[in-house]
Amino acid sequence: MRWYKTKLILTMKKFVYLFFASLLPALLSAQIHEKPPKIITEIDSIANWINKHKTEPYKYLDYNGNDTVATYVWLIDNHISKVNKITTVRDFNNNTPILFSIVAEYYFSNNQPILIREDGSFDGIVNPQHIDDKSNKDNKTFNDYYYDHYEIMSEMVVKITDTDTIMVFNEVLKDAIDLLDKYKHLQNYNPYKNLPYDSIVAYDFKGDGGRLIIYKNKLDRSAKNPKKLTPQQLQKLIATVTDTATYGEGTSACFDPHLGFVFYHKGAIKSSINVCFSCNYLVADEYLPAHNHSNYIEAGDDYFIRIPKYGFSPQGIEKLLQLCKELGLTYCKAPAAPLEAIPSPNKE
Questions:
Q1: What whole-number distance in Å separates Cα of residue 269 and Cα of residue 264?
Q2: Within a domain: 151
Q3: DSSP letter string, 28-92
Q4: Within 10 A of 62 (CB to CB), how many other CB atoms are there?
Q5: What is the pLDDT of residues 155-205, one digit of tens each?
Q6: Which pLDDT tens digit goes with each residue over 251-269?
Q7: How far apart are CA 203 and CA 192, in angstroms?
Q8: Residues 196 and 232 in one domain
Protein backbone atom coordinates (compact mmCIF):
# COMPACT_ATOMS: atom_id res chain seq x y z
CA MET A 1 0.00 0.00 0.00
CA ARG A 2 2.87 2.39 0.83
CA TRP A 3 4.52 1.58 -2.45
CA TYR A 4 1.29 2.41 -4.30
CA LYS A 5 0.96 5.78 -2.47
CA THR A 6 4.60 6.66 -3.22
CA LYS A 7 4.12 5.86 -6.92
CA LEU A 8 0.92 7.92 -7.01
CA ILE A 9 2.68 10.92 -5.43
CA LEU A 10 5.58 10.67 -7.89
CA THR A 11 3.13 10.44 -10.80
CA MET A 12 1.26 13.52 -9.59
CA LYS A 13 4.52 15.48 -9.17
CA LYS A 14 5.57 14.46 -12.68
CA PHE A 15 2.22 15.63 -14.04
CA VAL A 16 2.57 19.00 -12.25
CA TYR A 17 6.12 19.46 -13.60
CA LEU A 18 5.02 18.62 -17.13
CA PHE A 19 2.06 20.98 -16.85
CA PHE A 20 4.19 23.95 -15.82
CA ALA A 21 6.86 23.01 -18.36
CA SER A 22 4.21 23.20 -21.10
CA LEU A 23 3.22 26.68 -19.90
CA LEU A 24 6.79 27.98 -19.86
CA PRO A 25 7.10 28.70 -23.62
CA ALA A 26 3.82 30.60 -23.58
CA LEU A 27 4.90 32.63 -20.55
CA LEU A 28 8.24 33.44 -22.15
CA SER A 29 6.54 34.31 -25.41
CA ALA A 30 4.16 36.66 -23.59
CA GLN A 31 7.14 38.47 -22.12
CA ILE A 32 8.98 38.68 -25.44
CA HIS A 33 5.92 39.74 -27.48
CA GLU A 34 4.66 42.67 -25.45
CA LYS A 35 1.31 44.24 -26.11
CA PRO A 36 1.35 46.93 -28.80
CA PRO A 37 1.15 50.56 -27.64
CA LYS A 38 -2.30 51.87 -26.87
CA ILE A 39 -2.40 54.10 -29.96
CA ILE A 40 -1.76 51.06 -32.20
CA THR A 41 -4.63 49.18 -30.56
CA GLU A 42 -6.93 52.17 -31.01
CA ILE A 43 -6.01 52.54 -34.69
CA ASP A 44 -6.56 48.82 -35.31
CA SER A 45 -9.94 49.13 -33.61
CA ILE A 46 -10.93 52.02 -35.91
CA ALA A 47 -9.75 50.08 -38.98
CA ASN A 48 -11.79 47.04 -37.93
CA TRP A 49 -14.84 49.25 -37.39
CA ILE A 50 -14.42 50.78 -40.87
CA ASN A 51 -14.19 47.34 -42.48
CA LYS A 52 -17.31 46.24 -40.62
CA HIS A 53 -19.43 49.27 -41.55
CA LYS A 54 -18.29 50.17 -45.05
CA THR A 55 -20.92 49.92 -47.77
CA GLU A 56 -20.73 50.00 -51.58
CA PRO A 57 -17.65 51.98 -52.69
CA TYR A 58 -17.09 54.49 -55.46
CA LYS A 59 -15.09 52.74 -58.19
CA TYR A 60 -12.51 54.25 -60.55
CA LEU A 61 -10.34 52.68 -63.25
CA ASP A 62 -7.24 54.38 -64.67
CA TYR A 63 -4.73 53.22 -67.26
CA ASN A 64 -1.08 54.18 -67.04
CA GLY A 65 0.96 52.59 -69.82
CA ASN A 66 1.05 48.88 -69.12
CA ASP A 67 -0.45 49.34 -65.67
CA THR A 68 -4.10 49.39 -64.66
CA VAL A 69 -5.02 51.13 -61.41
CA ALA A 70 -8.36 50.27 -59.79
CA THR A 71 -9.37 52.52 -56.89
CA TYR A 72 -12.24 51.92 -54.45
CA VAL A 73 -13.32 54.73 -52.11
CA TRP A 74 -15.57 54.19 -49.09
CA LEU A 75 -17.37 56.95 -47.20
CA ILE A 76 -18.85 56.59 -43.72
CA ASP A 77 -20.88 59.46 -42.22
CA ASN A 78 -19.67 61.85 -44.92
CA HIS A 79 -16.00 61.00 -44.27
CA ILE A 80 -13.61 59.26 -46.62
CA SER A 81 -12.88 56.28 -44.38
CA LYS A 82 -10.98 53.85 -46.60
CA VAL A 83 -9.37 53.69 -50.04
CA ASN A 84 -8.17 50.52 -51.74
CA LYS A 85 -5.76 50.97 -54.62
CA ILE A 86 -4.87 47.96 -56.80
CA THR A 87 -2.17 48.38 -59.43
CA THR A 88 -2.12 45.55 -61.96
CA VAL A 89 1.12 45.25 -63.95
CA ARG A 90 0.90 43.49 -67.34
CA ASP A 91 3.59 42.24 -69.69
CA PHE A 92 2.55 44.16 -72.83
CA ASN A 93 5.30 42.86 -75.13
CA ASN A 94 4.49 39.19 -74.63
CA ASN A 95 0.77 39.85 -74.35
CA THR A 96 0.58 37.72 -71.23
CA PRO A 97 -2.15 37.97 -68.58
CA ILE A 98 -1.62 39.55 -65.16
CA LEU A 99 2.01 39.47 -64.12
CA PHE A 100 1.36 40.65 -60.59
CA SER A 101 -0.78 43.08 -58.62
CA ILE A 102 0.28 45.52 -55.92
CA VAL A 103 -2.34 46.39 -53.33
CA ALA A 104 -2.51 49.28 -50.86
CA GLU A 105 -5.15 49.97 -48.22
CA TYR A 106 -5.49 53.48 -46.78
CA TYR A 107 -7.53 54.12 -43.63
CA PHE A 108 -8.61 57.63 -42.63
CA SER A 109 -10.08 59.20 -39.51
CA ASN A 110 -11.26 62.83 -39.53
CA ASN A 111 -9.56 63.31 -42.91
CA GLN A 112 -6.18 62.20 -41.59
CA PRO A 113 -4.41 58.95 -42.56
CA ILE A 114 -4.08 56.62 -39.59
CA LEU A 115 -3.08 53.28 -41.14
CA ILE A 116 -1.61 52.30 -44.50
CA ARG A 117 -1.21 48.67 -45.46
CA GLU A 118 0.70 48.19 -48.69
CA ASP A 119 3.06 46.08 -50.79
CA GLY A 120 0.60 43.19 -50.87
CA SER A 121 1.27 40.95 -53.89
CA PHE A 122 -1.35 38.65 -55.36
CA ASP A 123 -1.19 35.85 -57.91
CA GLY A 124 -4.78 36.72 -58.67
CA ILE A 125 -7.48 38.82 -57.01
CA VAL A 126 -10.82 37.15 -56.49
CA ASN A 127 -12.64 40.29 -55.37
CA PRO A 128 -10.31 43.32 -55.37
CA GLN A 129 -12.76 45.74 -53.75
CA HIS A 130 -12.94 43.49 -50.69
CA ILE A 131 -9.32 42.46 -50.35
CA ASP A 132 -9.71 42.16 -46.60
CA ASP A 133 -12.03 39.16 -47.06
CA LYS A 134 -10.76 35.76 -45.92
CA SER A 135 -10.69 34.49 -49.51
CA ASN A 136 -7.78 36.80 -50.30
CA LYS A 137 -5.81 36.77 -47.06
CA ASP A 138 -3.62 33.77 -47.87
CA ASN A 139 -1.83 35.52 -50.73
CA LYS A 140 -1.01 38.89 -49.23
CA THR A 141 1.98 39.96 -47.20
CA PHE A 142 1.31 43.50 -46.03
CA ASN A 143 3.59 46.04 -44.41
CA ASP A 144 1.70 48.09 -41.82
CA TYR A 145 2.43 51.81 -41.42
CA TYR A 146 0.73 53.58 -38.51
CA TYR A 147 0.27 57.34 -38.19
CA ASP A 148 -0.89 59.43 -35.27
CA HIS A 149 -2.91 62.44 -36.45
CA TYR A 150 -0.62 65.00 -38.07
CA GLU A 151 2.75 63.32 -38.14
CA ILE A 152 4.42 59.96 -38.53
CA MET A 153 4.67 58.03 -35.32
CA SER A 154 8.08 57.16 -33.89
CA GLU A 155 9.76 54.07 -35.29
CA MET A 156 9.32 52.41 -31.90
CA VAL A 157 5.59 52.02 -32.52
CA VAL A 158 5.51 51.56 -36.29
CA LYS A 159 5.04 47.96 -37.36
CA ILE A 160 6.89 47.34 -40.61
CA THR A 161 7.96 43.93 -41.89
CA ASP A 162 10.58 44.83 -44.49
CA THR A 163 11.80 48.41 -44.48
CA ASP A 164 11.71 51.28 -42.05
CA THR A 165 13.34 54.11 -43.95
CA ILE A 166 12.11 57.67 -43.69
CA MET A 167 11.90 57.73 -47.49
CA VAL A 168 9.29 54.98 -47.46
CA PHE A 169 7.38 56.77 -44.70
CA ASN A 170 7.33 59.90 -46.86
CA GLU A 171 6.13 58.09 -49.96
CA VAL A 172 3.25 56.15 -48.42
CA LEU A 173 2.04 59.14 -46.39
CA LYS A 174 2.17 61.42 -49.45
CA ASP A 175 0.19 58.81 -51.43
CA ALA A 176 -2.51 58.88 -48.74
CA ILE A 177 -2.71 62.68 -48.71
CA ASP A 178 -2.85 62.80 -52.52
CA LEU A 179 -5.69 60.26 -52.61
CA LEU A 180 -7.60 62.23 -50.00
CA ASP A 181 -7.23 65.41 -52.07
CA LYS A 182 -8.17 63.62 -55.29
CA TYR A 183 -11.45 62.18 -53.98
CA LYS A 184 -12.46 64.84 -51.43
CA HIS A 185 -15.19 66.04 -53.81
CA LEU A 186 -17.16 62.87 -52.93
CA GLN A 187 -17.84 64.20 -49.45
CA ASN A 188 -21.01 66.18 -48.88
CA TYR A 189 -19.84 69.70 -48.10
CA ASN A 190 -23.19 70.61 -46.52
CA PRO A 191 -23.96 68.18 -43.68
CA TYR A 192 -26.88 70.39 -42.60
CA LYS A 193 -28.94 69.13 -45.57
CA ASN A 194 -29.71 65.98 -43.60
CA LEU A 195 -30.00 67.63 -40.18
CA PRO A 196 -33.58 68.05 -38.93
CA TYR A 197 -33.98 71.65 -37.71
CA ASP A 198 -36.61 74.36 -38.05
CA SER A 199 -34.73 77.34 -36.59
CA ILE A 200 -31.28 78.68 -35.70
CA VAL A 201 -30.73 81.01 -32.76
CA ALA A 202 -27.54 83.03 -32.20
CA TYR A 203 -26.30 83.88 -28.70
CA ASP A 204 -23.65 85.89 -26.92
CA PHE A 205 -21.93 83.68 -24.36
CA LYS A 206 -18.73 83.42 -22.33
CA GLY A 207 -16.72 80.56 -23.81
CA ASP A 208 -13.47 81.32 -21.99
CA GLY A 209 -11.17 78.32 -21.71
CA GLY A 210 -12.79 76.46 -24.58
CA ARG A 211 -16.32 76.26 -23.17
CA LEU A 212 -18.89 75.56 -25.87
CA ILE A 213 -22.41 76.93 -26.26
CA ILE A 214 -23.84 73.41 -25.84
CA TYR A 215 -22.63 70.92 -23.26
CA LYS A 216 -24.38 67.59 -22.66
CA ASN A 217 -27.22 68.82 -24.86
CA LYS A 218 -27.85 71.86 -22.63
CA LEU A 219 -27.41 75.54 -23.40
CA ASP A 220 -24.52 77.19 -21.56
CA ARG A 221 -25.78 79.19 -18.58
CA SER A 222 -23.91 82.29 -19.77
CA ALA A 223 -25.86 82.40 -23.07
CA LYS A 224 -27.79 85.64 -23.51
CA ASN A 225 -29.18 88.04 -26.10
CA PRO A 226 -30.85 85.33 -28.26
CA LYS A 227 -31.41 86.28 -31.91
CA LYS A 228 -33.43 84.04 -34.20
CA LEU A 229 -32.03 84.01 -37.72
CA THR A 230 -34.28 84.95 -40.62
CA PRO A 231 -34.46 82.50 -43.56
CA GLN A 232 -32.00 84.71 -45.46
CA GLN A 233 -29.56 84.86 -42.52
CA LEU A 234 -29.90 81.11 -42.02
CA GLN A 235 -28.95 80.45 -45.65
CA LYS A 236 -26.03 82.86 -45.37
CA LEU A 237 -24.67 81.10 -42.27
CA ILE A 238 -24.89 77.63 -43.84
CA ALA A 239 -23.39 78.80 -47.13
CA THR A 240 -20.49 80.44 -45.29
CA VAL A 241 -19.47 77.63 -42.94
CA THR A 242 -19.69 74.99 -45.71
CA ASP A 243 -17.63 77.00 -48.21
CA THR A 244 -13.94 76.13 -48.63
CA ALA A 245 -13.24 79.82 -49.34
CA THR A 246 -14.19 80.61 -45.74
CA TYR A 247 -11.02 78.96 -44.42
CA GLY A 248 -7.32 78.89 -45.19
CA GLU A 249 -5.50 81.13 -42.69
CA GLY A 250 -3.82 80.66 -39.33
CA THR A 251 -5.37 80.32 -35.88
CA SER A 252 -4.50 81.16 -32.31
CA ALA A 253 -3.48 78.51 -29.80
CA CYS A 254 -6.51 79.37 -27.64
CA PHE A 255 -10.23 78.95 -28.21
CA ASP A 256 -12.52 81.34 -26.30
CA PRO A 257 -15.73 81.54 -28.34
CA HIS A 258 -18.28 84.27 -27.63
CA LEU A 259 -20.65 83.69 -30.54
CA GLY A 260 -22.79 80.56 -30.67
CA PHE A 261 -25.35 79.32 -33.19
CA VAL A 262 -27.80 76.67 -31.97
CA PHE A 263 -29.94 74.55 -34.29
CA TYR A 264 -33.39 73.65 -32.91
CA HIS A 265 -36.08 71.24 -34.03
CA LYS A 266 -39.43 71.62 -32.27
CA GLY A 267 -37.62 73.21 -29.35
CA ALA A 268 -35.01 70.44 -29.02
CA ILE A 269 -31.31 71.16 -29.50
CA LYS A 270 -29.91 69.41 -32.57
CA SER A 271 -26.51 70.98 -33.26
CA SER A 272 -24.33 74.02 -32.69
CA ILE A 273 -21.52 76.16 -34.09
CA ASN A 274 -19.07 78.01 -31.84
CA VAL A 275 -17.19 80.99 -33.28
CA CYS A 276 -14.14 82.68 -31.80
CA PHE A 277 -13.21 85.77 -33.82
CA SER A 278 -10.13 86.54 -31.71
CA CYS A 279 -8.77 83.00 -32.23
CA ASN A 280 -9.90 83.04 -35.88
CA TYR A 281 -11.71 79.71 -36.15
CA LEU A 282 -14.86 77.81 -35.30
CA VAL A 283 -15.80 74.47 -33.75
CA ALA A 284 -18.94 72.75 -35.05
CA ASP A 285 -20.82 69.68 -33.86
CA GLU A 286 -21.24 68.55 -37.47
CA TYR A 287 -18.22 67.48 -39.48
CA LEU A 288 -17.44 70.18 -42.06
CA PRO A 289 -15.35 68.91 -45.01
CA ALA A 290 -14.71 72.51 -46.13
CA HIS A 291 -13.15 73.23 -42.75
CA ASN A 292 -10.71 70.34 -43.19
CA HIS A 293 -9.87 70.86 -46.88
CA SER A 294 -8.47 74.34 -46.78
CA ASN A 295 -4.90 75.45 -47.52
CA TYR A 296 -2.06 73.42 -46.05
CA ILE A 297 1.32 74.17 -44.60
CA GLU A 298 4.11 71.68 -45.23
CA ALA A 299 6.68 71.15 -42.49
CA GLY A 300 9.42 68.79 -41.42
CA ASP A 301 12.85 68.19 -42.93
CA ASP A 302 12.95 64.46 -42.19
CA TYR A 303 9.36 63.49 -42.91
CA PHE A 304 6.35 64.54 -44.96
CA ILE A 305 3.67 66.42 -43.04
CA ARG A 306 0.82 68.67 -44.12
CA ILE A 307 -1.35 70.52 -41.62
CA PRO A 308 -4.67 72.06 -42.69
CA LYS A 309 -4.98 75.80 -42.05
CA TYR A 310 -8.32 75.96 -40.24
CA GLY A 311 -8.41 79.69 -39.65
CA PHE A 312 -10.91 82.00 -41.32
CA SER A 313 -9.86 83.62 -44.57
CA PRO A 314 -10.36 87.40 -44.87
CA GLN A 315 -13.45 86.66 -46.97
CA GLY A 316 -14.79 84.16 -44.44
CA ILE A 317 -14.34 86.29 -41.34
CA GLU A 318 -15.87 89.29 -43.12
CA LYS A 319 -19.06 87.34 -43.87
CA LEU A 320 -19.36 86.05 -40.31
CA LEU A 321 -18.65 89.49 -38.82
CA GLN A 322 -21.29 91.03 -41.06
CA LEU A 323 -23.86 88.44 -39.91
CA CYS A 324 -22.86 88.99 -36.28
CA LYS A 325 -23.43 92.74 -36.63
CA GLU A 326 -26.74 92.25 -38.47
CA LEU A 327 -27.96 90.22 -35.51
CA GLY A 328 -26.95 92.96 -33.07
CA LEU A 329 -24.66 90.74 -31.04
CA THR A 330 -21.80 91.96 -28.85
CA TYR A 331 -18.55 90.21 -29.79
CA CYS A 332 -18.18 91.13 -33.47
CA LYS A 333 -14.49 91.99 -33.75
CA ALA A 334 -11.81 90.57 -36.06
CA PRO A 335 -8.44 89.35 -34.69
CA ALA A 336 -5.83 92.07 -34.33
CA ALA A 337 -3.15 90.41 -36.50
CA PRO A 338 -2.61 87.38 -38.81
CA LEU A 339 -2.07 84.12 -36.97
CA GLU A 340 0.22 81.15 -37.54
CA ALA A 341 -1.44 77.90 -38.56
CA ILE A 342 -1.85 75.20 -35.92
CA PRO A 343 -4.13 72.12 -35.74
CA SER A 344 -7.67 72.84 -34.61
CA PRO A 345 -9.69 70.80 -32.09
CA ASN A 346 -12.67 70.71 -34.46
CA LYS A 347 -14.96 67.83 -33.65
CA GLU A 348 -15.20 64.83 -35.86
A1: 5
A2: yes
A3: HHHHHSPPPPHHHHHHHHHHHHHHHH--SPEEEEEEETTEEEEEEEEEETTEEEEEEEEEEEE-T
A4: 11
A5: 433 444 444 555 666 777 888 888 988 888 888 788 898 899 999 999 999
A6: 888 899 999 999 999 999 9
A7: 19
A8: yes
**Domain presence at residue 19:** no
Full-model pTM? 0.60
For residues 155 and 260, membership in a common domain is answered with no
Q: Give mean pLDDT, residues 122-141.
A: 43
CA-atom Rg of the chain in angstroms: 27
Specify whether 69 is located in the same domain as 202.
no
Helices (H) and strands (E) in the chain, counts: 7, 18
Residue 92 pLDDT greater than 60, yes or no = no
* Cα 4 to Cα 193: distance, rounded to the nearest angstrom: 84
**Are 70 and 77 in contact, with CB atoms under 8 Å apart?**
no
Average pLDDT, the chain: 75
Could you tell me the residue range of the domain that residue 84 belongs to?
39-186
Instruction: Give the residue among 314, 170, 330 at the shortest CA–CA distance from 246.
Output: 314
**Each residue of 53-79: pLDDT tens digit?**
877 888 888 877 677 888 999 888 778
Q: What is the dihedral of CA 308, 314, 318, 324, to 10 degrees?
A: 40
Total domains in the fold of the chain: 2
Contacts of 111 (CB under 8 A, 6+ apart): 79, 80, 180, 184, 289, 292, 293, 308
In a domain? residue 130 = yes
The secondary structure of residue 179, as a DSSP letter, is H
Last residue of a domain, one of 145, 165, 186: 186
Same domain, 148 and 64: yes
